[in-house]
Amino acid sequence: MQLTPRDAAATLEREFLHIRARLLELAADLDRLDRGEGTLRDDARMKQIAQALQVLSQRGPGRAERVQMIFSRAYDPQWKEQFRPVPKPR
């Protein structure tokens, strides 16, 4: 089944206020981090955030997947051994 893309103008009309709100929320979060004491210069999570923002500033499809991959772990075929479920107490 092939999906037909929605009209870009109609999508923007419908989503604009929601997108705007999320961008303002993100800007406020980043402002709070900047105002905090100490430095996050070497924090790996901040580097991931910076990479994600770089991806978001680029045009074209696939941004969601690229951002997801920034925050994802590389596949480990031994993952089951590392993340064994904790048995429930009886």
Short description:
By secondary structure, the protein is an all-alpha fold. Among the domains are: 8-38; 41-70, no CATH class.
Silhouette: extended
- The unreliable regions are none
Helical fraction: 55-70%
The ordered H/E elements are HHHH
Overall average residue pLDDT: 91
Overall strand count: 0
Question: Helix segment count?
Answer: 4
Q: How far apart lie the N and C ends?
A: 47 Å
Give the amount of beta strand, in percent.
Answer: under 5%
> How would you sum up the major sheet?
none
- How would you classify the helix and strand content by structural class? mainly alpha
Q: What value does the Rg take, in angstroms?
A: 19 Å
Name some characteristics of this structure.
single chain; 90 residues; mainly alpha; 4 helices; 59% helix
Task: Indicate the topology.
Layout (H helix, E strand, L loop, with lengths): L7 H28 L8 H13 L6 H8 L8 H4 L8
What this model shows, in words?
With about 90 residues, this protein is mainly alpha-helical. Among the domains are: about 10-40; about 40-70, no CATH class. About 60% of the residues lie in helices and about 0% in strands. It is built from 4 helices and no strands. It has helices at about 10-35, 45-55, 65-70, 80.
